[in-house]
What does this fold into?
Amino acid sequence: MNIDQAIISGFVQGLTEFFPISSSGHLVILHSIFGFKTPEIAFDVFLHIGTLLSVLIFFRKDIIAIVLKDRKLLYLLAWASVPTAIIGFLLKDPAEKFFSSPVFVGYMLIINGAWLFTAWYFAGKARPVKRIGPVNSFLIGVAQGIAVIPGISRSGATISTAMISGIDGEFAVKFSFLLSIPAILGASVLKFASIGKSISAGSAPQFLAGALTAMAVGILAIKAIMALVKGNRIKPFAAYCVLAGLVIILLAK
It folds into this structure.
């Protein structure tokens, strides 16, 4: 991998991690285009760390407020992380097998698109509220766990589930991205050993370039998606996922 490929990967990660179109799915496709014979797991973890920094920077005031004042929301985030951890652990090994299968990603993108369409429909019919409790926070955590499957967007699954349960779009985005913090941290810690074995002095600049690009693009993507979801303008993302999934499946056959 060269610097240009690392920067392109970082751009794709920063954009697709927060836009509800599956960062892992797009990275599988991108790596297939680049001709990588095996998934660049260590590099992908660095890209996710870059987008984690995006969340920490963008929501720094909210994070401080949650830790110091809003303990209820802190408990709900912790509660939602429980099913994420369990499902993520159970699906981790089976899901990683599909990181080299663009066709599988195509089918999952179609499912992701249908999920987004459902959220768009419910948000247009219901009167959203900002109230969130143990039940819907748990369901959002389940959705995040399922999103370990490549082609299922983490942000798309969590935001859609929140909106379907009647939560206000803007708060759904905020809860989704705050919930990503323990998930990404946990996944990064679990893969730390493999990262150490995969990084050499020669590959460090590419890893750093990808992570910094993902961070910078991620900050802009968060700002954009918050405005789009607030206005319930997620239908184009749903259509894109379905269309992209069909194209991938047809081209792979």
